[in-house]
Amino acid sequence: MGIGWIFLIQASPVAGQEPSDGFESIASVAFQPEILKEPIVSHEGYFQLTWELVGTPDFNGSFRVAELVDFNGEGSSDGQRATGSSAEEAEKGAAERVVYEGSLPTAFVSGLSDGTYHYHVEALDANGRVIAVSEVPATVQVLHWPMWQATLLLAIGAIVFLAVIIVIVRGTWMHRLVNAEVEPNDRSSEEPTEGNRS
Prior knowledge:
Keywords: Membrane, Transmembrane, Transmembrane helix. It contains 4 helices and 10 strands. It is α+β, with helices and mostly antiparallel strands. Strands 2, 4, 5, 6, 8, 9 and 10 form a 7-stranded mixed β-sheet that branches. The chain has a 3-stranded antiparallel β-sheet with strand order 1-3-7. A hairpin with a 5-residue loop joins strand 8 and strand 9. The chain folds into 2 domains: 122 residues, Immunoglobulins (Immunoglobulin-like, Sandwich), CATH 2.60.40; 44 residues.
């Protein structure tokens, strides 16, 4: 009967409970300092976010980067998965759009329209539990090049392209013209004249 109690105690749900609310993780994750000093300004609509995880030397989990959609009334809602990252944020209505999930401490974000975007990163352990969240979000401002500038550069490129085509066609035509003039002269010099015939 003693062995039965041991199995009963080991199988009870008390032994597998989550840590209490007083448990504090020693891990922390934060974006690189140069990203946090000033907002990233992107004129092309793409950029790279990098971060660092400290406090876990043998980290074998993954990272999740999310855009805070309702951060101060700004953000994007153009697709991808939107979720509340915590019960507190879900109550406040702050949703997030996940833009990266993976094991590398860098994310490439693209395809954004003009606006200001805010991102935070989470570190997840091998079981998928969040062990660290960035305290300060990274801010990105997307300001695409003006349309007049893009149109001007397109026109200049078209002019240069046409000029190159014209030079190639004219050069080929001139080469053929010169070769056509040289060939009749070569044939006439090879033909014997009346005085040279024997």
